[in-house]
Amino acid sequence: MEKQKLIIILVVLLCGSLAAVGYYATSKSKTSVSAEQAQLDLEKAQGDLTKVRADLEKTQVQLAESRAKLTFELNRIKNLETKVTQKEELLAKATGDLKKQVQGLESSLKKSTDQSTVLQNDLSTVKSQIAKLTTQLAAAQQQVGDLKKQGQAAAKKTKALSAENAKLQQKVKDLTAKLEQKKKVAKKAAEKTAKKSKATLLTAKADLMKNVQVAKADSPQAITPVSSNPDGNLAVDVDFTWVSKYMWRGQDRMGGHGSFQPSVNIDLWGSGFSFNWFAAYPGSSGSRGLSTVNATEYDYSITYSDSLLEGDRLQTDYAVSYIYYDFPAVSSEVADAQEMQLSLSWPEICPAGITPSYTYAQLWPAYGGGAARGIGGAYHIFGLTHEDNSMALPLTYSWDITYNDSAYEADSDWSHMVFGLSTSMDIGPGTLSPGLFYQVAFEDKAADRNDEFWSGFSYTISF
């Protein structure tokens, strides 16, 4: 407005000057003023006109500068609009990345429940990324607030960006809720897997004490540490086993006949102590003059198990057991025996899931002066196991070799070794574990001199 007023004043001065010149000329003709005076007045008017023109040119220069400043401000507003657009693109990219991450997480949740630990890590990673994205959104909102102060054009797009931010935050909340739901599903799957693993481990511990369960034959296997029952509840496992031959430390205890072997294992509130009852019933009454009527066996054992250096490469799982062997159809002084047993295994020391183990068992008759006094002696059992989870059903490969130190009046020597292959599957409320086993016998009267092949299966229910 001030520039327009200046232009109007200059125009008025110019018009006034021209009018003065005209008036001067008219007055000259009327009053007959001298020519010299008219010439002076004319030159003065021309000087005023030149000054007015100079002022007009200066005003035009100022107008050009004002146009340049206006153009600069317009370009600045366009730059602000470009920044807003870039922020929107960054937010859109972040939203796309988050969607991809969530899709990847949902895909991983469909995999085997054995990957529950990986899934928990993925959930933690996604939560961390959500937290980072929330921080980025807060920073973007602050930048949007600053941009609002820089122009009306930028303000409109900022409003739209804020609305998009609100939608994105709602999406983040929805995704978080979905992740929590997935986490609950994964937790249930992990609990189911842990229950299955506990049943398998407890069965393996019973095998260590008796060396006759199908899944592990008579080899020392993985020991169940206290952490297998972390909730501290009273846990009970009931097992029903059938074997085509009852092989115990190299001996065919049923004369080539099958045997039904139920057992009950009670974990005492996660304290490390457990109690086991085991029975072996003959599958038939015998043949070829060999009777198994009196071969029924009941074993009672109490065990304490735990781990040393847990989580370390030298982690050592150990179990100490006392076992009483009872043959109810035969006089206790003739057949009953007792045993102390120490079992060690190292689950982390070897690569590829191979677990070495060692069991020392000291056997002696229940009654020192009875007919069974010759059974006293010791066993040293060295074993290897490997669990293969790469297929639909897990496979457990086992091998052990036994050194008989005078038990059953045998010479101290290596007596036999056993190869085993077993698997497990969930059926109904329990776990079915079939297995195949082959024994290579050495020259020892305390072991069957013939190589033996047998099979069997067990069904375990955990409470």
Describe this structure in words.
With 463 residues, the protein is α+β, with helices and mostly antiparallel strands. The protein folds into 2 domains: 1-196; 211-462, monomeric porin ompg (Porin, Beta Barrel), CATH 2.40.160. It is 43% helix and 30% strand. The chain is built from 5 helices and 17 strands. The protein has helices at residues 2-31, 35-109, 116-148, 152-210, 332-335; strands at residues 235-243, 247-248, 251-252, 259-267, 273-282, 286-287, 290-291, 297-308, 316-326, 337-345, 354-365, 377-388, 395-405, 413-423, 425-427, 430-441, 452-462. It has a 12-stranded antiparallel beta barrel. A hairpin with an 8-residue loop joins strand 10 and strand 11 (354-365). Helix 3 (116-148) runs antiparallel to helix 4 (152-210). The protein is rod-shaped and about 170 Å long. Mean pLDDT is 80; it is low at 189-227 and 287-291.
What is the SS-derived class? alpha+beta
What is the beta-strand fraction? 25-35%
What's the average pLDDT? 80
Mind telling me the CATH class of the largest domain?
Mainly Beta
Described by its quaternary structure, the protein is single chain
CATH superfamily membership of the largest domain, which one? monomeric porin ompg
Instruction: Please report the number of helical segments.
Output: 5
The helix content, as a percent range, equals 40-55%
C-alpha geometry: rod-shaped
- CATH-defined architecture of the largest domain: Beta Barrel
Task: Determine the N-to-C terminus distance.
Answer: 93 Å
> Spans with pLDDT under 50 lasting ≥5 residues?
189-227, 287-291
* Order of strands in the sheet with most strands: 1-4-5-8-9-10-11-12-13-14-16-17
SSE pattern: HHHHEEEEEEEEEHEEEEEEEE
Give Rg in angstroms.
48 Å
The counted number of beta strands is 17
